[in-house]
Specification:
alpha+beta
Length: 397
Amino acid sequence: MTPDDITRTFLDHYHRHDHQRAPESSLVPPPGDPVLFTTSGMHPLTPYLLGRPHPGGRRLANVQRCLRTTDLDEVGDDTHLTVFQMLGSWSLGDYDIATSLRWGFDLLTGGFGIPLERLHATVFGGGSGEGPDDTARDTWTGLGVPVEALGEDNWWSNGPTGPCGPDSEIFVWTGDGPPTGTPSTDARWVEVWNHVQMRYHRHPDGRLTPLPHSSIDTGMGLERLEIVLRGDRSVFTGDGLRRWVDAVGDRWDLRDEDLRVVSDHLRSAVVVLGDGVRPGNTGRGYVLRRLLRRALTVLWRDDPARSLDGLPPELYADTLRRFRQVPGPSALPVDVGSLHATLVDEERRFRGLLRRGRPLVDRVRERGPLTERDYHWLHDTHGLPRDLVDGLLAEAS
């Protein structure tokens, strides 16, 4: 199944269960939202999970593009990406977790054809004053799916405050031969879907208070589901990533992990640019700048003459098509030529910064190991961020 096939099958399944399609949001949250980027499918729906009526009703489904900087250090393995698409469904005070899990099981085994014996679930086993999730456990057992009860790993929150509650995660066996072990003991069990019971609101002081109504929030990574259905092991073999891996690999000879990091970061940068963000020294602009500079640092490790200038523009267009851009002055239309020019200009700026930064770092280093005061001076006076300084130090050692 292609990503388009998967998305259509997912949405059709929930439409048959009377879910309306929730509009996809930009990666850039609306004014007043404290987060830099949309990090999950539920994030744009937070006000409605807290009790506000949604204009689309109490049953919703969609596909939402997301960006997570918390996983940057994991990018390069088989399953983590910086920007990805999340298939989501929601019950806003309507049906319960048992219904959500049964419908999810029907979709995985019927709509996507995953054999029952390749499924394993985890549920909240209790902790921090909360009892075990017996309803989720009994539902999975009744469906014939093995269950593992865990602690904090199965308590979901989108941050230190806000909606939270127990969750049930669904794993698919990706190993050769019959499944063995459990999700917590064998990494060949890959998580594909999370069903969260949004029961509580966590306050800054840590208190939990019940939400006006209990809701269900589910999220399933499109790229990860695609590789499971294809029988592959890595998200970088899927339709959305393969074109970047092929283009980058054809142009530059890179080690496998470096190839993945460069492909992910450049693809992510294109999506962020498509949502109207431009490189800068703070906030969203700095996240974009950091992605580009991390990719360039890897490229220049073996050959400083490498340049983004020759990347095919159709690669950008294909990426923006896959990540459907939200109408609005900052997102549409996207001028691919202008986008490419922004990447090349950022490369030029980074080259200049490295040229100026090397002698500065060398001079400070001659006095001994860098102190926090040295890092602050290099950043505040000369615009050299800590990760760049550390890269220059590694270069010199």
